[in-house]
Amino acid sequence: MKKILILPGDGIGPEIVAEARKVLDCLRADHGLQVEVEEGLLGGCAVDAEGAPLPESTLGKAKQADAILLGAVGGPKWDSIERDLRPERGLLGIRAALELYANLRPAVLFPALASASTLRPEVVAGLDIMIVRELTGGIYFGQPRGIRTLDNGERQGFNTEVYSESEIERIGRTAFEAARKRGGRVCSVDKANVLEVSELWREVMERVARDYPDVALSHMYVDNAAMQLVRDPRQFDVIVTGNLFGDILSDTAAMLTGSIGMLPSASLNAAGRGMYEPIHGSAPDIAGKGVANPLATIMSLGMMLRYSLDEVALAQRVQQAVERVIEYGLRTADIAGDHTSPVSTAEMGDAVVAALALN
Ligand code: IPM
Ligand code: MG
């Protein structure tokens, strides 16, 4: 039987994961999903309980699991502790330890939410972009890194942006495969006019493209891509890019859809094992208030069903249930605008569970 590890994390993490858990339990009880479920600690809560953001016990469970559902990590409480103990280190550590190099971040606009976007509805209507972000390399992990003291006594911070051919090739293949199942276009984003690492990135992408004659490859500099995303986002189908550029561009893409609270993500390794998490953070300002939007986490569970558990029909069922509650008019505060009275985190989760029975 497949094993799922749940890592609620910090801030709103436990609240939103609890709602995804309701959906998961409903799928097990009523829709024949057979999985084993375990929980573990990651992030600030793990620092508090075990003195490390990624305890050995969690790493052990993660390595045994077929898929991981993560809430969010981090918060002001842990911002000033030693760098290696920060919650974010736990997240980066688990990505690296499981070699979750392929980060899929879809940015899809729900038609009923077009007015929640800060861009005009006619610019974002029908938006459907897939950002494929490299997740275990680049400047996030490159060596050397650190803060050193120069001869003149001044301190200097440094990091290294580095990509090997094999790293570029495998994320390229992920992007081309994804494009094949979508609009057939890949835009590779780099900074090849300045950086050697991007020059190599571009060259390898061209090489990979030869294996996918049915997919059209284009290149764009990252500054232009940032501009094009807000000027005319619908020109994009699949965007493939490195770790840092992908981090930045995926937040922009998320906001186009009206709420960062609506977007799921998958981080996969070569074997298709994956970690699934909402792309928003732990939102400490609203933690514990029961107002967070659980839909990104619930849709992350949907991605898990599709990509790691081979349950495509159930994945569609979850997606439809989410679409239904949105069409029905339910809104958490982040997507409520001025006209609707918002529902709570738990009410939203309950509504999705109720909608699951309708399909
Ligand atoms: C993300 C987050 C993380 C990242 C942080 C929390 C380390 O911003 O998943 O986009 O930068 O990768
Ligand atoms: Mg980010």
Write up this protein:
This protein has 359 residues and is of the alpha/beta class. The protein folds into 2 domains: 1-101 and 269-359, Isopropylmalate Dehydrogenase, CATH 3.40.718; 106-260, Isopropylmalate Dehydrogenase, CATH 3.40.718. The chain is built from 13 helices and 12 strands. It has helices spanning 13-30, 44-50, 56-64, 87-97, 121-124, 165-180, 196-209, 222-231, 243-256, 295-307, 312-328, 333-336, 345-356; strands at 2-9, 35-39, 67-72, 102-108, 128-134, 146-149, 155-158, 185-190, 216-221, 238-241, 264-268, 274-278. The strands form 2 sheets. The chain has a 10-stranded mixed β-sheet with strand order 2-1-3-12-11-4-5-10-8-9, sandwiched between helices. Helix 1 (13-30) links the parallel strand 1 and strand 2 (35-39). Helix 10 (295-307) packs antiparallel against helix 11. The two termini are 26 Å apart. 48% of the residues are buried. The mean pLDDT is 96. Residues 247, 251 line the site of magnesium ion.
Relative strand content:
15-25%
Uncertain spans, ≥5 residues at pLDDT below 50?
Answer: none
Give the C-alpha Rg.
Answer: 20 Å
Instruction: Say what the CATH topology of the largest domain is.
Output: Isopropylmalate Dehydrogenase
Count up the helices: 13
**What sort of overall outline do the alpha carbons produce when their principal axes are compared?**
globular
CATH architecture of the largest domain: 3-Layer(aba) Sandwich
CATH H-tier superfamily of the largest domain: Isopropylmalate Dehydrogenase
Strand-and-helix sequence, N→C?
Answer: EHEHHEHEHEEEHEHEHEHEEHHHH
Q: Round the mean pLDDT to the nearest integer and report it.
A: 96
Distance between the termini: 26 Å
Biggest β-sheet: count, sense, barrel? 10 strands, mixed
Residues in helix, %: 40-55%
CATH class of the largest domain: Alpha Beta
Which hetero ligands occur in this complex?
A: 3-isopropylmalic acid, magnesium ion
